[in-house]
Backbone:
């Protein structure tokens, strides 16, 4: 299984300038490749191959006055930009033909220097290395200081250097993990340990064993600070240096909220996977809920990110993960006798079953029904139940389709 480990980078001023050149050169090659493809489509010609684009946009371009500065950065960075174009067009055409799962994706767009994220990728043939002093040596950039928060379990196959909207630099390593070694690190839980999870807003999660996990509401708690930073940004003159400083202040405030939410999701998902042999959740229509009056709270909860973490960690550590259908009536079905009652507004938090006269907590009852619908209630023997496991996905420039366990140092 492939995972991503991210660590914070602290480049020197000269190294920042070199990284900016690398980001810019990769962006130019990417845009030139997209333009060549679009020109070929407009002329109804065959799309140029990757080899032709490499010869035209990199090798020959370095000998021209207009693109001579491409020689100032590692050629591997430029080649990987072309690979990103190839992957983006492949995803686009597969989506058109229905061969790609998930929502439809559009054609590749031109990249801008004002994009929220800039990224370049170094593969093994770029001869990057981790130095003896703990730095990250990158070609034509130098040894960059790294804040190591943990030990890499294996030799990385590539490294992606990322600049986010808050001005922070990260090194993201691709690691091929050993599944057997990963599973041996954790003590196996009781074979009958299974849990159903009902996700919500008042409580982030209610478990089928009755445990209620409060929602941290990171965005709501930071709204006052965010509002003040956004107000200061709106008062700055466009194009000024003070406006750029204010923009980064807003970006850092949002990044702090996102990092805290991700950390909470990582800790909770790891705990649930560590303590249970099987986990079941409901497939929520997050996109639909995000168009309601609850949109801000739905986005603040981050259900999709949490479920994705549960899914790939279950695969990594040999657990069973089941996702039941979103139309399963978990909130209106009695978990004791199976009687199906009518719809219930959100303000109804408790209800009594008319068939067996059992008083139910709405969320706890739903969590039990999620577990029963997934078939986990009868898995005391420890046999695998539910559908097969699907690797979780993470989108990152140049790394489409790679499951990730990443946490910023």
Residues:
């Amino acid at each position: 299984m492939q995972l991503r480990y991210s660590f914070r980078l602290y480049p020197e001023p000269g190294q920042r300038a070199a990284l900016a050149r690398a980001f810019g050169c990769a962006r130019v090659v990417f845009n030139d490749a997209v333009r060549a493809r679009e020109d070929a489509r407009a002329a109804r010609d065959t799309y140029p191959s990757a080899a032709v684009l490499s010869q035209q946009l990199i090798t020959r371009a370095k000998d021209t006055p207009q693109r001579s500065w491409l020689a100032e950065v590692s050629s591997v960075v430029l080649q990987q930009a072309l690979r990103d174009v190839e992957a983006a067009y492949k995803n686009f055409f597969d989506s058109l033909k229905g061969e790609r799962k998930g929502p439809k994706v559009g054609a590749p767009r031109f990249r801008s220097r004002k994009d929220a994220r800039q990224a370049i990728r170094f593969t093994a043939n770029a001869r990057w290395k981790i130095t003896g002093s703990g730095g990250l040596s990158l070609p034509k950039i130098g040894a960059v200081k790294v804040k190591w928060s943990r030990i890499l379990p294996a030799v990385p196959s590539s490294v992606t250097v990322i600049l986010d909207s808050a001005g922070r630099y990260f090194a993201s390593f691709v690691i091929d993990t050993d599944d057997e070694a990963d599973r041996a690190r954790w003590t196996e839980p009781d074979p009958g340990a299974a849990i159903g999870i009902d996700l919500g807003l008042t409580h982030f999660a209610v478990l089928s064993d009755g445990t209620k996990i409060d929602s941290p509401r990171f965005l709501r708690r930071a709204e006052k600070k965010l509002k003040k930073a956004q107000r200061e940004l709106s008062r700055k003159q466009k194009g000024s240096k003070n406006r750029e400083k204010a923009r980064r202040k807003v970006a850092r405030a949002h990044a702090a909220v996102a990092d805290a939410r991700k950390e909470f999701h990582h800790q909770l998902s790891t705990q649930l996977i560590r303590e249970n042999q099987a986990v079941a959740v409901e497939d929520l229509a997050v996109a639909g809920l995000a168009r309601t009056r609850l949109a801000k709270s739905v986005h603040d909860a981050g259900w999709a990110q949490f479920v994705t973490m549960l899914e790939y960690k279950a695969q990594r550590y040999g657990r069973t993960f089941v996702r039941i259908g979103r139309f399963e009536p978990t909130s209106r079905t009695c978990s004791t006798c199976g009687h199906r009652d009518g719809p219930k507004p959100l303000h109804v938090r408790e209800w009594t079953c008319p068939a067996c006269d059992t008083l139910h907590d709405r969320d706890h009852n739903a969590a039990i029904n999620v577990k029963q619908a997934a078939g986990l209630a009868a898995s005391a023997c420890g046999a695998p139940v539910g559908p097969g496991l699907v690797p979780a996905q993470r989108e990152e420039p140049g790394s489409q389709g790679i499951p990730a366990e990443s946490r910023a140092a």
Q: What stands out?
A: Residues 241-275 form the longest helix (35 residues). The two ends are 22 Å apart (CA to CA). Residues 378-409 have pLDDT under 50 and may be disordered. DSSP finds eleven helices and 14 strands in the chain.
